[in-house]
Amino acid sequence: MSTPTAFPLPGSQGTHLLGEWYGCDFSTPTLNDLDTLRTICLFATGDAGLEVVGDVFHKFKPQGVTGTVLLAESHLAIHTWPEKKFTTLDVYVCNIREDNTAKALKLYNSLKEYFHPQGENFSRVQRGRKE
Amino acid sequence: MSTPTAFPLPGSQGTHLLGEWYGCDFSTPTLNDLDTLRTICLFATGDAGLEVVGDVFHKFKPQGVTGTVLLAESHLAIHTWPEKKFTTLDVYVCNIREDNTAKALKLYNSLKEYFHPQGENFSRVQRGRKE
Questions:
Q1: Is B51 near chain A, with CB under 8 Å?
Q2: Residue B33, burial from CB neighbour count under 10 angstroms (0-12, 13-18, 19+)
Q3: Which of A48, A78, A90, B61 sits at a 20 to 30 Å CA gap from B126?
């Protein structure tokens, strides 16, 4: 990511966790159920100490659920492809009042436990810059 | 991003555009209006040829709007901090049936035009891998 040193303007520093999970266990059919996945996401968000301000989920036919949880700290986004045993997760938190990175990692890891992926891509991106 | 070569499992390749916009023009107050920003996002999404399957937006007090648009192709997420003249945008599209990267770039750039940022961080991340 380029750093716009030519633009010393205010911003907001944040942490974005990006995960791709391969070989997920969808044998438990509830993970392909919209209400269940939504409940899991909302519970895990609150359990991590992050604040929900809205959410929207959608179920594809014949399978796959996609959803986002809006946070006071930014957002969570999850997309599942049961036919490929594949899931992606984004957790993005701004760090204005405090560093929320530990909470984001807790949320990421708690959701990952539900999917039991056999393989993972994980990256952590700093959004913005410290003022 | 690490490549999990030890896990030759199916996945789904996608393109994720991450932007941070500094020095945004919030002098037009409508950009800090939930309904207006939502309308702009939904219009730009359709205009780019992407399919909306849901959305949720939230307005903070005293200012700032945050929102996500769920796409058949994945998601858009936008967060604004008018007090810092700062905005972040995520556009993530999967490329299963076709390569949606050009549509994602069109959506990113059309939304950017509304904010007239004086500075920008931009990165493009490949999610998953080609099968």
A1: no
A2: middle
A3: A48
Dig out the tokens for A111 from the structure. 């959701």
The interface predicted TM-score (ipTM) is 0.90
Q: What is the pLDDT of residue B21?
A: 95
* Distance (Å) of CA B96 to CA A15, B105, B128: 28, 17, 11
Residue in B90, B119, B121 closest to A1 by CB: B121
Cβ distance A66 to B75 less than 8 Å, yes or no, reads yes
SS3 state at A87? strand
A34 in contact with B at a CB cutoff of 8 Å?
Answer: no
Nearest to B45 by CA among B58, B35, B30, B55: B55
A11 vs A125, more confident: A125
The mean pLDDT of A110-131, rounded to a whole number, is 89
8 A C-beta contact, residue B4 and residue A120: yes
Across the interface, which of B18, B53, B127 has its CB nearest the CB of A125?
A: B18
- Measured between beta carbons, the chain B residues lying within 8 angstroms of A53 are 58, 66
